[in-house]
Amino acid sequence: MIAMSKLASLNPATGELLREIDTTPTDALPEYFRKAREAQMRWSALPIRKRAAALTSLREVMLDQIDQIAELISLENGKPRFEALANELLPAIELLTYFARISPHALQDEPIPMGLMKHRQSELTYWPLGTVAVISPWNYPFLLPFGEIVMAITTGNAVIFKPSEITWQIGLKIQELFELAGYPTDLLQTIFGDGSLGSALIEQKPAKIFFTGSVATGKKIMAAAALHLIPVNLELGGKDAMIVLGDADLDYATSAALWGGFSNSGQVCASVERIIVHESIVQDFTRLLLEKVTKLRQGNSADQQNDLGVITLDRQKQIYEAQLTQAKAQGAEILCGGIFSDDRRSLQPTIITGPKIEELDVYNEETFGPVVAITTFRSVQQAIEKANQSKYGLLASVITKNLSLAHYIAKQLEVGTVTINEVVYTAGLPETPWGGVKNSGFGKKHSARGLQEFVNVRHIHRPRSMLFVFKSPWWFPYTEFQYATFRKLFDLYRRSLTARIKAFPLLIWNFVQFIKKEKRL
């Protein structure tokens, strides 16, 4: 018997060992998929209305354990317990409520209006993909996988779920919630391990892969999936910009920048990392933002007396150090922070600026930590260009009193979502689609559009009635009569109403003669 390796769950604030679990052996994966397929076939046979109704039971189970789940997230991820409650669990409850209500309607058969061929009709119908894989990150270890699992199962799929090896206890808790809510055995199965297990998971050829994480890992997953023609949905990195116009209320703008840049200690793909401020207000903006940063309370989240938690993943600290070292070497000005705590479990919230800031990694590469870079603009067009000069395209924000101008700017920004006078939080809205462009990935989650990522689309085309069943006039054999009839058809597309009217009677006459001939009327 081969001894299994152990996966440790650690408290990132203290280094304390919370729990260990056996890793999932790769040779067990075929059996996971076999059980998933059997469960999925039974589950998908249920009407979607019944599958959606099950979400209310899941919601009740979750509501009974809200405080315990919030504590677990805080312990294993390191974020303040309030952030676990407000930024992960409340959006998850909203998500359950929303999809319980709209799923049956969102996936109803959908008629397609016909143009020329009005004697025919078309419709779209939907059916589940099968068994999908969800591979999730450590920064929002409950909300991010939970939403994808809910959408997958509600649309009739089974799920093989690999949580991050850093926050696997939270993944296990999600599994337990579904079991307590009465979902069928093996419909959701959670596996535990590092990236090598994720690679082995792809070799089992899931119907689709839903991955949230880094660009580098996303590219590896996409390459591996391509060998089996497995579709993928990727939510990757971000280097999100906030544009602050000259008319912005400074108190409001700096509070938005503060929370947008430093919530979850900046470990958010949608966090504000680049602040592009109109040159007329940049000094006052920076001064007030600095004042507010100094009041943020950093520390262990156990006593619930902190605003910032700790850095969850040690590897991220190397990125911070490299970017800060480069910035210092290039003469950038570190206005505050840039210093690790004595135990290196947290980085002080950091603001960087300087004339060469836009050339540095801290401005162009994802930091994923409590670091923001400030630069300026003179014209609206320059602000748009600076925001778009990024290989990422997840989220952008515009802060201003001029809503019409903000809307104009928003429509020029090359991102998946733009928030006006708000930051970050739309990633948790179940009603709106979430996803990026460029190196931020592709595919959507949430909303009715997001549900369609979890189903196949079938087009059905048929006659409106048996009265309209006759050989199509473009079938063999081709004749001069066919050519003349179709040639007259083109006149219906002319700009001139007179030409269209003149063509119509002859065209109808020709088609009637054709139908009579074919049906021998």
Q: What is the spatial order of strands in the main beta sheet?
A: 12-13-14-11-10-16-17
Main sheet summary: 7 strands, mixed
CATH topology description of the largest domain: Aldehyde Dehydrogenase, Chain A, domain 1
- Report the structural category: alpha/beta
* Assigned CATH architecture of the largest domain: 3-Layer(aba) Sandwich
Share in helix? 40-55%
Q: CATH class of the largest domain, please?
A: Alpha Beta
Strand content: 15-25%
Shape: globular
Return the average pLDDT rounded to an integer. 95
Total domains, how many?
Answer: 3
Determine the number of helices (DSSP H or I, runs of at least 4 residues).
Answer: 17
Distance between the termini: 79 Å
Annotation, overall tally of beta strands: 20
Which terms summarize this structure?
18% strand; single chain; globular; Aldehyde Dehydrogenase, Chain A, domain 2; six-stranded mixed β-sheet; Aldehyde Dehydrogenase, Chain A, domain 1; 521 residues; seven-stranded mixed β-sheet; alpha/beta; 20 strands
